[in-house]
Amino acid sequence: MRFNVLKLLTIASVVFCSSAIAFALELSEAKAKGLVGETATGYLAAVSANPAPEVKSLVEDINAKRKTHYRSIASENGTPVVAVEKLAAEKAINRASKGEMVRLPDGTWQKR
C-alpha cells in the first residue's frame, strides 16, 4: 500500500510540474508578444485596455498566485504585503527581457 501512495504522489508531482511548465510558456509568449507586462505594483497587467479573454484570464490567474505568494512571504517575515509587492515589482521589472513591456509608476508602458 505504501508503494502505491508514493507512486501516486510522484505522478501528481509530474503532472503538476508539467502543467506549470505549460503555463509558464503561455506567460512567456504573452510577454514576448507585448500582450502583458510587469508593473510597479508587483503584478502583471494587460497592455491593451481591452485585452482578449485569454490574456485577461492569464493575468488574473498569475496575479492570484502572486498575491497568495506575497501574502505568505509577508507573513513569514512579519512585513507588510505592500513591501513584498514593491520588492517583487523591482525584481520583475529588472528581469524583463529586451522587447518586453513594463508599466512605470506613472502608468505609462515602456518597451525594454
Write up this protein.
By secondary structure, this protein is α+β, with helices and mostly antiparallel strands. The model is unreliable at 1-22 (pLDDT under 50). The N and C termini lie far apart (54 Å). The protein has helices at residues 2-32, 53-77, 81-95; strands at 36-39, 44-46, 101-103, 109-111. The longest helix has 31 residues, at 2-32. Helix 2 (53-77) crosses helix 3 (81-95). It is globular, with a radius of gyration of 17 Å. The protein has 3 helices and 4 strands; from the N terminus they run αββααββ. Strand 3 and strand 4 form a beta hairpin.
Please state roughly what percent of the residues sit in beta strands, choosing from under 5%, 5-15%, 15-25%, 25-35%, 35-45% or over 45%. Answer: 5-15%
Query: Strand order of the main beta sheet, please?
Result: 2-1-3-4
User: Which structural category do the helix and sheet elements fall into?
Assistant: alpha+beta
Q: List the helices and strands in order.
A: HEEHHEE
Radius of gyration: 17 Å
Major beta-sheet overview: 4 strands, mixed
Distance between the termini: 54 Å
Low-confidence stretches: 1-22
Mean pLDDT: 83
Would you count the extended β strands for me? 4
Shape, please? Answer: globular
